[in-house]
């Protein structure tokens, strides 16, 4: 893809071997002036973006102030989730707005899903080369 | 070559083309797993994807559209 940024797959847990290699994108999130530098798993099977509880706290978000409740599915269905809109930067591209389902779950990776990461970015996966490329759609 | 293997050949010869290719894929996969077990039994592989969370997706899309109109929240 032209003007794309290429990133490697990263091993999340070496004990899982090949199965642990995941497409992690570095991500800088900003919410009401607070910033969190983190990374998210590009998860095409995820209907929505998911923000782990600890990262919402790091951004200064207050759980009780987020009043839009969301129902997630699968293993996340057991945890309450609320809507959080943040500004996100995938270097070197301009900032975009991302909507997250901020989950009460702690031990979950930050997930970048169809709504709305894959609406904002075009992604090509080259799993056999342990790499992926990202470029903004606009 | 074992007797069992020799007895297999007539059956394999009668398979349709697609079935022969399937057998090849099966054997390649078996060999690959013997060398590097990609998925091992007894180990938990976490899957967190919120699959088919359509209601949540609709709410989030609506919220994004509303904040785009009103200015970023």
Which tags fit this structure?
heterodimer, A: 138 residues, mainly beta, B: 73 residues, 64% helix
Task: Tell me briefly what this model is.
The complex is a heterodimer of chains A (138) and B (73). Chain A has 138 residues and is mainly β.
Structure description:
The complex is a heterodimer of chains A (138) and B (73). With 138 residues, chain A is mainly beta. Chain A has two helices and ten strands. In chain A, 7% of the residues lie in helices and 46% in strands. Chain B contains three helices and no strands. At the A-B interface, β6 and β7 of A face α3 of B.
Helix run count of chain A: 2
The largest sheet of chain A, given as strand count, sense and whether it forms a barrel, is: 10 strands, mixed
> What is the quaternary state of this protein?
heterodimer
Beta-strand percent range of chain A: over 45%
Uncertain residue segments of chain A: none
Order of helices and strands of chain A: EEEEHEEEEHEE
Which spans of chain B of ≥5 residues are poorly predicted at pLDDT below 50?
none
Report helical residue fraction of chain A: under 10%
**Could you tell me the mean pLDDT of chain B?**
82
H/E element string of chain B? HHH
Number of strands of chain B: 0
**Separation, N- and C-terminal Cα atoms of chain A:** 14 Å
Q: How are the SSEs ordered, and which strands pair?
A:
The complex is a heterodimer of chains A (138) and B (73).
Chain A (H helix, E strand, L loop, with lengths): L4 E7 L9 E11 L2 E9 L6 E3 L1 H6 L10 E2 L10 E9 L6 E8 L7 E2 L4 H4 E6 L4 E6 L2
Parallel strand pairs in A: 3-8, 4-7
Antiparallel strand pairs in A: 1-2, 1-10, 2-3, 2-6, 5-6, 6-7, 9-10
Chain B lengths: L2 H11 L3 H19 L18 H17 L3
